[in-house]
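This section describes the prediction task in plain terms. A model, or a person checking by hand, is given the sequence of a single protein chain and must write out its three-dimensional structure as a string of tokens. No templates, partner chains or ligands are provided. The sample shown here is typical of the held-out split.
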Amino acid sequence: MQLKGKNAIITGSNQGFGKAIAEEFISQGANILICARNEQLLESARKELSKKAAGSHKVYACRVDVTDHESLDQLYKTALEKFGNIDILVNNAGVYGPKGAIEEIDWDEWVEAIKINLLGTVLACKIFVPHFRKNGYGKIINLSGGGATAPLPRISAYAASKAAVVRFTETLSEELKGTGVEVNCIAPGALNTRLLDEVLEAGMEKVGKTFYERSLAQKQQGGTPLVKGAQLCVFLASDKSNGITGKLISAVWDPWDKLPEHLEDLKNSDVYTLRRIIPKERGMTWGDV
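The expected answer:
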């Protein structure tokens, strides 16, 4: 029960990975407030999660549009009314956005993806951070992914926004040093969720042959289990991760459960961060001034 008595908010949690996080948080003793835009799915998820909580934990739901300031303000007020105190914020709400070459995509859809993935994450942090600062404690978990660490042709809004979320996380971590508030990013792996279905539905022409074929293989093979990333979220939301902040951690590739053994290395290095690579780091002799 790593999260016993903790109060958590999870955005984009009426289905898919967000719902998996909610399930894992409940299994570890947390009270949760799930939120998303689709009220019907949200209520269905709340009922299902309440059964899993079996009355031992509180499960609430609140319709939220993370791109709207008033909506997130209301989420904050609702959380305080329900819990009295907030310990954990998971910014999971996200979309792929338009698919296709940059000169072909719908601009408004591209901007909307940036609003949801990046601005929604930043705005939620802006609203909840004062509460965490006041308490001298808080765990913020932002969702990133493969789009942040490698080019993602023809899904540029997703790639750009997720890279920006990582750098924002690093920056916010610096701002919060010494406050007891820690913020990290996670890459949950190649998940078989509605986002994967969107890629396959868009087709090879829009997303490109390589990405389409990789996505099709992922669909057939099952992808990364949702629980893997959800367990990483539990770790980062728990006191086991105290001292770890400003990092992008992969649920699949990183030994995250052993990270407490390497706190000094993490604090004094740029491990698990986004950085510019210079020629000599790749064994090249040119590039120095």
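For orientation: The chain is about 45% helix and 10% strand.
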